Amino acid sequence: MSSETRDCVVIGGGPAGSTFAAIARKYAPHLKVTVLEQARFPRYHIGESTIPAANNVLRELGLYDDLLETDFVKKMGIVFVWGQDRKPWNADYLQLRDAKTEIGGSDVIDVTGQDFRGVIDRLGYLDTPVTAFNVRRAEFDHMLLNRARDFGAEVREGTRATEVLRDARGRVEGVRWADDTGRSGTLETPFVLDASGLMTFMSKGERDYHEDMNNFAVYGYLSNAEWKVTFNGTRERSSVLIAAVEKGWIWYFPIGPDIMSVGAVTRKQHFKDRLKEVDLESFWWEMLHSCPEVAGLVQNATLRTDILPDGKRVAASQDWSSQARNPVGDGWAAAGDAAIFVDPILSSGVTLAMQSGHRAAYTWLTSLTRPELPAPSLWRAYADYIRGEYGAFLTLARYWYGNNRAAESWWWEAQRLVNRTGRLDLNDRQSFTMATAGFFPMPRTMTTEVVGSVLTHLSGAQGDLMQIYQDAGVPEPEQLARCRMEMKAPFRLDLRTEPVMKGEPCGNLDVYHDLVTESPEWAHRLASVPCRIAPAMAPVVDAIPRHRQVAALLDEAPSLLPRQYASPEEIRASTLGIVRVAAMKGFVQLSDSP
Q: Residue 76 in contact with residue 93, Cβ under 8 Å?
């Protein structure tokens, strides 16, 4: 049994693990990064549609232009057939070219952690200002894994992790492995990235499942199937079709010139009950033929046997939305499905995997280059980020499954998530399209700050909130001091992170302090309205739960900080700012004091 030393070991070579390894090596080529992947690529995987939020990661990996040259179908949006009248309606990515913001006088929308500049073309018309990809995962995942190799990561295919080793304090210190040739060994390492998918190597048995989002998907691939949507009559671009049926919904989209990916999603109980009477393939055809928008398209189609493993014609998997109770630990973090898995209704899976792998790599690199930052807080900030992304997608998915609403109500919910504060020149359809493209929950002005200095820093900055807070239902300072406070979620002052947005990507995070919560039901709010708060104000933040009246908090606040720090008036002004931020995030509810 061999023993070697590595700076990092990645368990799993899918989109999350490959992205992490590639980004880590791109910005720190001196580090030794090893990926352990139990399969040998190319290998099949379900989840074949990206959304535009993945494009910046693909560009940073140097793969976006390569994908444009493949015969993967370019995805221009989503067509939904939903509601009682079954009238099709579109989330058309082309609409995003007309989106603009008036916040801070900027004419670009930048979404927290995501650069939106490439989405909006101000110089002239583009046929595809925003595109995503319908991919064959065997080839797509192989491209990502090879890109990790290109950047210098060591990739060991046919090799599985068998055990993670920890020291007496419980901190990771190594990984035992075994490969499909019978060899085994140990990799000594101070950090492990768990990208093992739903097998959740590091957090097995410690996962929260959502019973209302427990579904099964049955899927197969067709030749000679008609396309539902084409652009300019060619088979290069299309949209994903999502169509509701009595017992669930159908996905229908091409992943190649003559390969149609077709799946049927239904509730767990219906799946189990029906499979007592028919076989899996019959069930799949039954669901397809129950959809009038699809039935006519597959009359002359035949099932392929060259895509699913072992020549299968159809396959099934469970789509049970869930998240790791704690996606980080002492010397490890989880990414991709190992951290979060959301129902596939919005095609978010592979994109969330890449985004989480990207953010995990940035977090790890920042922890190495800035050892003065407390590692637990830094990794909690990573956990906050992926919980926020998960919560936002889960919120929209629940609106789909909750009842058979009209399209307009889903647009309204998307607008609430996208345009919750601030003055954005977006109509309902643009707001919904932004959300389905992954650009939510909070557009912000493009500045070197996250939303600028929204709080007085007690260091010479101007002490007022920006326009972004106006018209949002939060009282102005003169009324705020007379309000009553009700705690809606526990929160604390801790680190928060964003990729540095100035200049070219650099692998480093912008780190600051903000109000954060770990309550899952508030996760989607956590990713919105980022604010910078002076860390010295932590005693004031800690005091908020002790008070029911804002006035009482203002009376106590000056005594909580050193006398030389600032004048009592400045401290009270900043305390009011913090209360406003807590209210904007939804962590406290303000009402007129009786």
A: yes
